[in-house]
Design a protein that fits this description.
6 helices; Copper Amine Oxidase, Chain A, domain 1; 4-stranded antiparallel sheet; centromere; about 300 residues; chromosome; nucleus
Amino acid sequence: RLPSRPPHSWRGKMEGGKAYSDGVFAHLEMLEARAREAAVKQEEMEQQEEKLARLKARVQELRLQRDELRAKVELQEKGQLGKGGVVSDPAQPSARAVLEWKIKSVKATLQVFYLTGISGKLTKRGVCFCISTAYEGTYLDSYCLDLLIKPEVRIHRHSVPVFIPLEQIAKKYLQTDIRRFLSVLSDHLNAYAGRRYQADQLQEHFSDQIEGTLQRNSLCNLLIFNYNVSSKSQTFLLRVRLLYGDLCCSLPTEVVVSCAPDAPASLAEMAAAHSDLFRRTALHKAFRSFGSADKS
């Protein structure tokens, strides 16, 4: 006759098997959760890419419309274009038609700027622009610029940081090409925001690898820091100096990664590889790739 309770050894095996199966199921659930998260992130990236493609196409379409409107306005101002876009007698220009084309041209221009991160609205004395900055799909900060147009175009007030060369950009473009002025200013602000974002991400997510303090100036176009790397079961220190010579770019133009003179040759090779990566990749992404390489 079978015993009413399994022997102690059986119970141990059953309990051990249950614990093992529970661990396997928990691991499978974790893998499934990670797979779902990866699928969601991939879908979001694809949607962002599709949205960006649509916006770029819309920008191109609006630019063509803007150019057509600009040409018609120029003809109207010369008194050569009548109603319906037909060339008329230069002695009979239509002031109302010229005004209508100018309004349409301004609205089309503001719409184009909006799709490129610059929005604007007409004020009683001029135009107020808002320049939004972003880096790799992440919205960062916005800066306002209030322009007066009478008796000449000039900056009334703004929230642009003092270390951005606003006066130089205005002196070069504001009176002759306001579109170019806004475009160049936007490039400066977005590049600065991108450099600052990378430095912030490095400090936030890779502080365990950074030795000491990350040094950076207000414009974030000079970064100096030390970080630890492993080579042949030993830990070594690399010193980095990143210079962003192009203020409209968020990647460095000059990279110096150095190690101690008595470091092994393999460490010097690693420093050269890291230097090349810093030139081509965002700072925090470069460090993420270092971690992946170490795990592999």
